[in-house]
Design goal:
This protein is an alpha/beta fold. It has one domain: 3-Layer(aba) Sandwich (Rossmann fold), CATH 3.40.50. It has 5 helices and 11 strands. The chain has a 7-stranded mixed β-sheet. A 4-stranded antiparallel β-sheet has the order 6-8-7-11. α2 packs across α3. The longest helix is centred in the first third of the chain and has 17 residues. It is globular, with a radius of gyration of 16 Å.
Length: about 200
């Protein structure tokens, strides 16, 4: 085995069972926006060796979501990481240089998130052809200053603060939602924690 592959970290101990468990986390996060969930490091993530600069939750999500038919874009924060090689080896996905060509994006930190209009938005006929972005952030909190979330999966409203995202993200989201059902779905992670923000969720400052 070539040295660069030999030195890559391990993926899931049981790819089928662990992927199913993490995939359920992703679907729950997107169906219950703004609710913070924590993955069990002794469960499906046990034995997984995430790439340099990766949050364990983000790495696990992409292991579960990607396959050989998926195209992935990585932000510049992963240039000196083995993230691309790790995911290619464990999932068979391919890498793209243009966010518009990506089915999934992995952003190392919120400041590296490109303008949302650069991602694939899907179309009225095929909204499922939009991108899903996994973004690593400084913190996730459901109290204190932040946004009020409304929409499907939320009874009334829910508070959420995402460390590292600015008000400009909220402005871009509102502009994007004018073209619903097109739009980008987000999964934000911090360490083992994750939260979903699908295109159906409205943000209020």
């Amino acid at each position: 085995m070539p040295a660069q592959l030999k030195d890559l970290g391990r993926g899931f101990a049981d790819p089928a069972l662990c992927s199913q468990s993490v995939f359920r986390h992703a679907m729950d996060a997107l169906s219950l926006p703004g609710r913070i969930a924590v993955m069990d490091a002794s469960g499906p993530l046990k034995g997984m060796q995430a790439p340099r600069g990766a949050h364990p939750a983000a790495a696990a999500l992409l292991l579960a979501l990607l396959d050989q038919d998926c195209k992935l874009w990585l932000s510049d924060g992963f240039i000196h990481s083995d993230a691309a090689a790790w995911l290619r080896f464990h999932t068979g996905c391919s890498m793209v240089q243009d966010p518009a060509q990506a089915d999934f994006a992995w952003v190392a930190q919120a400041a590296e998130l490109p303008p949302l209009a650069r991602f694939a938005q899907g179309s009225a006929e095929y909204p499922d052809l939009s991108a899903t972005c996994v973004v690593q952030v400084d913190s996730l909190q459901t109290h204190g200053s932040g946004w009020s979330l409304r929409g499907p999966g939320i009874a009334g409203s829910r508070q959420l603060h995402i460390g590292g995202l600015t008000q400009d993200f909220c402005i871009q989201r509102r502009a994007e939602q004018a073209h619903f059902p097109c739009g980008v779905d987000f999964l934000f992670t911090h360490g083992l924690s994750l939260v979903g923000l699908p295109r159906t969720t409205l943000l209020e400052a």
